[in-house]
Design a protein that fits this description.
Belongs to the GcvH family. Its main location: mitochondrion. Keywords: Lipoyl, Mitochondrion, Transit peptide. This protein is of the alpha+beta class. The protein has two domains: 33 residues, no CATH class; 123 residues, RNA polymerase II/Efflux pump adaptor protein, barrel-sandwich hybrid domain (OB fold (Dihydrolipoamide Acetyltransferase, E2P), Beta Barrel). It contains five helices and eleven strands, in the order αβββββαβββββααβα. The strands form three sheets. It has a six-stranded antiparallel β-sheet. A three-stranded antiparallel β-sheet has the order 6-8-9. The chain has a two-stranded antiparallel sheet with strand order 1-2. Strand 8 and strand 9 form a beta hairpin. It is globular, with a radius of gyration of 20 Å. The termini are far apart.
Amino acid sequence: MQGLLRAASRTRTLAVFPRRSSPLGFVHRAQSLRTIVTKRYTAEHETITFDDSTGIGIVTITDHAQSVLGDVVFVELSSTGTEVQQGDSIGAVESVKAASDIYAPVSGTIQEINEVLSSEPGLLNKSAEEKGWLCKIKLSDPSQINGLLTEEAYRASYES
């Protein structure tokens, strides 16, 4: 029985438990392992993907931003452990066209930075919102996510 519980909690699937009073002998109970992942945007072209179960948000620049910047040649990021406030500069990106600061979309502590970007800055052009992530921030105030732009609002901000 415990093996079944461990397997169900790892895979986050529906678990089946035996019960004598059921005519079929089983009752289905959904596990309460719900994780909500929210993706939001800033008007300055950063995005954050927030996982409410860990309290950590993964910060990237948007695909639109990397296309406007052109070929990225250098990425500088704040160090792990840095406390940041929403709107603080957390790094910079330089491309063949321009240089641009990167701003913290939320307040919190930088838990990890993407070290690969120091040797492969072009990864921002290839996979800006996935492999080219910039840093992971442990949010001090998760409600700040609600004040950021949805994808539709972000698109409207640069298309108009």
